[in-house]
Amino acid sequence: MTQIHVSTTINGDAGEFLCEPDETLLDVLRDRLGLTGAKEGCGTGDCGACSVTVDGRLICSCLMLGAEADGREVTTIEGMANGETLHPLQRKFLEHAALQCGICTPGILVAAKALLEKNPNPTETEARYWLAGNLCRCTGYDKIIRAVMDAAHEMRGA
Amino acid sequence: MALDDKHEADGRVFKVVGTRPVRPDGIDKVTGRARFGADMSMPGMLVGWVLRSPHAHARIRSIDTSKAEALPGVKAVVTRKDFTAESDDVLDNCMAGAKALYDGHAVAAVAAVSAKVAKQALKLIAVDYEVLPHVTDVDEAMKLDAPVLHKDKTDETVPAGMSKNVIQRFEYGHGDVEAGFAEADEIVSRSFKTAATHQGYIEPHACVASMGPDGQADLWVCTQGHYMVRNVCAPMLGMDIGKLRVTASEIGGGFGGKTTVFLEPVALMLSRKSGRPVKMVMTREDVLRATGPTASTSIDVKIGMKKDGTITAGWAEMRYQGGAYPGSPVQFGAMAAFAPYNLKHVKTIGWDVVTNRPKQAAYRAPGAPMGAYVVESVIDELCGNLGLDRLSVRLKNASTEGAKASYGPRFGKIGLTATLEAAKAHPHYSAPLGPSQGRGISCGFWFNFGGDTSVSLSVNNDGTISLSEGNPDIGGSRASMTMMAAEELGIPYDSVRTIIADTSALGQNEVTDGSRVTFAVGLATIKAARDAITKMCSRAAKVWGIDEDAVIWEDGHAKPAGPNAGKFPPMSLAEIAAQASNTGGPIAGHHEVNAEGAGVSFATHMCDAEVDPETGAVKILRYTVFQDAGKAVHPAYVEGQFQGGAVQGIGWALNEEYIYGKDGRLQNPGFLDYRVPVASDLPMIDTVIIEVPNPGHPYGVRGVGETSIVPPLAAVANAVSAAAGVRLTELPMSPPRVLKAIDTARA
Amino acid sequence: MVKVAIWGSLRVATEGRAEVEVDAKNLRELLDRLADAYPGIKPQIDRGVSVSIDGLIYNDSWFTPIGRGSEVVLLPRIVGG
What we know:
Chain A is α+β, with helices and mostly antiparallel strands. In chain A, about 30% of the residues lie in helices and about 15% in strands.
């Protein structure tokens, strides 16, 4: 099978890559582009560890083909901080100890950022349901939710 | 046991310990920079894939790998023949020998230039199986007519005339339970079942192995113990352990499931045969089918109680299946089940049974949650029958200092009563409940232990500290080590950097398990710091020309001990460090020890649940954890352990189970149908940290990581039983089971 | 002489006794002498045991001293997760 040539923008940088027709976007990010922040926890779209946004929409990159990224804008965890300056969500996660092993953290941060872009003032229930697609086995979600609500509060300029 | 109330840390004002600084590995983890098992690549790397048995039980007559080896792009194929080391259960589990013993058992592996080629190659391997009858249920496996897995593993503790699937028998206790039951006003006898569950770490097993033609090898792996990986894999490959250097990546969860090896010996063998680095990563399906879930159990329990709430006798017979090889954690269940209670008459019997399921691995307080589930459920029922307050009864019977544990020793200073009293005083206990809502309580216990530990603390020329320890950080322990070093040395937290060194850099380190790291590595860190302090004081003494004994260490400075020692201004750690070369050479402290003196940890959990009587669905409304931590070095990480363990227990109680078909194959090897708790299932998990210092640690630390998973099964079951109006005796309490219990009770 | 508590399923090797006496000054001597005096216990000792001495659990430390009045309890090898 010949490889497919893809032109895309990743974290604001235009770029190109070759991939197999059946390669997922997750595989491309991790194995071809060196962006190992997105993780494969299940390969079937059930755990959310591979979360990225494509054209502003939150998706599981294990459920999208690399070829489908052609002409689109992909944002990953690596694009969340601005140089040395962490995003408020990243800061709040550290402050609230909202991570233990950290494997789910990139996916949850990407998902939480997408939530706050859509709904800057979520209730606890809304935050929990939005993040229901991101599994965490270490924290029990308590400190994660607190961190998200606190970041939302700060971002609203309170 | 000395009943002295004083602890060496009494009256000490801690400056760093007990605060909540940001953890040193935090930035990497929130930016995606942190490197986990599958995040490593090496030049020339091949990809390894495993061929797994589709049969639950089969004799392997032959394996023909010739077509796979001939496929372009395939660089090595491995089967059990390649492992010439002496056979043992761990090796047999990594690569099947004469028989495939469970659906998913590895039978061969290939290394190829791409995953695509590797998967094609697997299809070309011809395995000639003779399919045999299988058994997956623990009680079925004990029957004399059950298919037998091993003819010769049953040991001397098992009476004659039992199935060869029964491997070992345990018995604990003291007193005379029959006499105890005779004194009871109320006796409850019940049988319970729990399903097998998986630790559920989000990161699948992954490693990169690189063996050179000179027989030296490097291995990058996500593991709870890279020294264990080295010590286990090297002999399997016929290597001296010193020739294998293992580096631990960041680990995406373990909970006991990564305290053994699965892929690693295979990756090393593929690398040896191909002459290139080989990367192997498990799929989620592989993880569920072929790593180490915990045991499923079938337990009978009988407890007697007087009208005044005194428990007069406790008895349990526990049958655990640990998969295809011996080693279910039944003995810990049998030892820990009644541990929270001070009983004159207690007896527990445990049976270790094998079945055609994957070989079990440790899961957070192995064996104990199931034991607590059955005992705490029956105590709950007895309290209900006698109209007694559930916390008062537990307080009345609680194990205290000096009491003889159900498993033998007398307890030292323990915090169970403190957790019960905190529970009783907490607003959760008196909060009102609505219709179809119920409250459940449970106590729980875990042993904790120490083990081999090596820590090295180097003083850098600028006065900062490099701390090397050998325990993969699964919960934030680097932060705690940094804090303890900073505390002892009297310097800021940010001056210390803690890393996890590879196996070539330190002496042996026991696996990160047994809730041992904050206790044992912390103890070694404190002693290594004190060792460095002794050396720095000696340098200051040289510079001042006074006796070593005349120098003390205070607030990060060496000082003359008193006015008679001489009038010298204090020397800071940084100043001493800057002059190290001049005063004798580089300064480092270290400590190697087989740490003992770990303190046990008790907890009480309280859970409110609501049952939907039409669907059987359960909603957890409120949950509070009360647990003794001895001394909380970093309170946020202690809270995190409480919350994480409680939620794993909630999942175990409500939804998680291994479902096998009649064909012996696992039906739900994915996160859709192996349903772990998600954020929308849960409320906030409230925590209360109790601190009854452990005399065996300089700051009083007790391990906390495991005890928190012991009470939730019963706390949730008691809440659901109260809410549903009927006693649930089988886990998980998924909606169909709850509905069936409600409908049966109504009929 | 030190008193050692033996768990239920091992008592077949000690003629049903829940407690036996051994002449031992440390953990290694304790296990060696137990195995000598009660050969039926040796397989379990070889499989692995922990020893509780005055309430603290020891795994392999041979030279852990055992005093005459110490409470010693033989336990299965404790592992965690």
